[in-house]
Amino acid sequence: MTDKKKILVIQKVHGKGMDLIENHPNFEADITEDLSIENLKSKIVDCDAVAIRIAKLPAEVINLSKKLKIISRHGVGYDNIDLKSVKEKNIKIAITANANAVTVAEHVMNVLLNIAKRNDLYDKTVREGNFQDRTKLPKKLEIWKKNFLIAGFGRIGRALIKRCLGFEMNVFVFDPYVDSATIESFGGKKVESLEETVKSMDVISLHMPLTDKTKNLINFDLLKTMKKNCILINAARGGIIHETDLDRALNEDLIFGAAIDVFEKEPPDNNNPLLKNNKVFLSPHTAAFTEECMMRMGIETIQNIIDFFENKIEKSKIVKF
Questions:
Q1: Mind listing the pLDDT tens digit for each residue in 186-216?
Q2: How far is it, in rounded angstroms, from Cα 43 to Cα 112?
Q3: Residues spanned by the domain of 83
Q4: Positions marked catalytic
């Protein structure tokens, strides 16, 4: 009888995903909710695979692994994993490439409409008994025929463009790695310069990884060139937007508003100025948190591990670095 492969599940995924392990004769789960480094050090030694959500996997943990072959991310980002040690030990990283694109795209449209239509302010006005002041309220914005920039044209960007076009928006795409023909086939227009393009955009939505090149990409120098009615959205990775610079730009009315789902430090410090800025819509890294998406992500996270050991995983799900 073949020994079962041990999957270390760091924070349990959706039950449908856990069922895949329980019902498979060749795999077993070791579940831990303790995210401390010392606990992970002890747990990782004899596991064959790791399923991970938001916990950190630094080099000091990864280097203790003796059998680890694959780390399967519950999501598409992998900045919580030390890539140098993973590469040195020839460990593969898989992502849930198919699970969350529609969900995040819906989140972007939700926060865009919330900001443009000033939903929170209008709702508050009625609840506080100030219905009669409705004509004194600041006006809303339409998004019809407005210019929308998608920065990063992977699966999420491609799901998002369909929703933007449904609102009859003019969609521009900045992604050095995607050709014009592909972008045009989705109904968008490729742009070559981010710095020049942001000057004429009404909405900018970020969908790129955090790298040395993208860290603090959106800083005050860029923010001050944007239109005063521009809405900036980040549901990608914290650190792409310089948070203090964004706070300053909002306070100086350089842009209309922002929506931030991801932070440079999570959870953000209590003294993060964005927490007190009412021109930014905040959410706790939950753009993908729908019941349907959590189920898909849980299933895909575990299925990626099973498929890897059965030599049938899609190549596009394995991170190249």
A1: 999 999 999 999 999 999 999 999 999 999 9
A2: 42
A3: 5-99+292-317
A4: 237, 266, 285
